[in-house]
Amino acid sequence: MTDWVVEASTFCNLRCTYCYQWDGLSDRRRMPLEQWAKTLRAVCEYHRRREALLGTPLRSRVIWHGGEPLALPLDYLEQTFELKLQIMREEAIAPNMIETVLQTNLFVLSNKMIAVLKRHEVGIGVSFDLVRGARITANGTTSEDRVLKNMDRLRGAGIPFGAITVLASHTCDRVNDVFDFWAERGMSFRVLPLFDGPVGRDEARFHAEEDQLVRAMCQLFVRWIESGSPIVIAPLDEYLANVVRHLLHVVAKQYDRRLHGDSVLVVHPDGKVYQVNEAGSDDYALGDLSVDSIDDLIVGTAYKESLTRSEIVTRLRCRQCEFRGGCNGYPAHSAPTRSTSHGRCHVAYLVQDFMARYLAQSGIRESDLRNLLTNIGRRENEPASAFA
């Protein structure tokens, strides 16, 4: 699957202290419909290209992102949903092959919005940290009570949704509470170590060093697995599969951007497109969908240079890693490109190392490991959130 994370606008109705879009949260400019049309045609073209490359039917997702999509005019959102359906009909792509997803803080949710989301079968991902203090409004009030009520309204309307919880200083010591909150509701979620962002953010309020993030992820893993792992937690499920394959000496199918295509592409409001862990640097734009076709982008110098950067980082991180082979290599492509003291993937390596030691010390049998790997495989199609 390829996720197209389309940032329709950086405008937002909240002022989350850690937001990587901090400098653009008051900017009301949004992607024009003509740019949406070019972007959606690029999505269809890339979808067909990947199907031809891999020789199998695939699914893609267009993830409406921001900023806050639900802070945009409702008629604008509905026009983009209709435009996607129109272009897919023109391209003879079945509607269920390219899903529509929207990532939201869910602070605003009107009855009309609910009707539009339901009519267009829009998947929802809710960004919610549980811990108060970081996700605040422009006037400094907390948002959590209102968001909780809106989640209940989504459930009442029969609209399924996943969740993302950001892992930063405010949540690192509360991961058990976070797990309990989502598990009690039977909801899978993604825990997302904090993105890099602009220097204008109040970094002192939320910053967490790698060792703090790793301790929190390991604590969450123990809570999750000792409770019988009743829900999917990404990326813990992905990391655990890598570790179990390593312990069983099972070789995973290795992720390779050059061979398999991109897993996540990010499109900015101006039409510039980025590989996911290069989206914060204007120098690393792969192309401009306002003027470039997918064919132009794929054969372009910027895309080839991005592939080379991915391969260099992967080679440096993976060549002496003990999890090489069992690990599918995806963490090396998706983790932040910053260097680490241990020369491996940021956060992912140390969490996988903890998992391997935990399983070994637990005395788990080979048959149990195989059952665990089978169960993880069965749950691969259960999305933990809208923004994977």
Short description:
Helices cover 43% and strands 12% of the residues.
Provide the descriptors you would attach to this structure in a database record:
alpha/beta, 12% strand, disordered C terminus, ten-stranded mixed beta sheet, 14 helices, 10 strands, TIM Barrel, 388 residues, 43% helix
Task: Describe this protein's structure.
The chain is α/β, with parallel strands linked by helices. The chain has a domain at 2-234 and 255-292: TIM Barrel (Alpha-Beta Barrel), CATH 3.20.20.70. Helices cover 43% and strands 12% of the residues. It has helices spanning 33-54, 74-90, 111-119, 144-156, 169-172, 175-184, 210-226, 236-248, 257-260, 294-299, 301-318, 330-334, 348-361, 366-378; strands at 2-7, 60-65, 98-104, 123-127, 161-167, 189-193, 233-234, 264-267, 272-275, 287-288. The protein is globular and about 55 Å long. The N and C termini lie close together (10 Å).
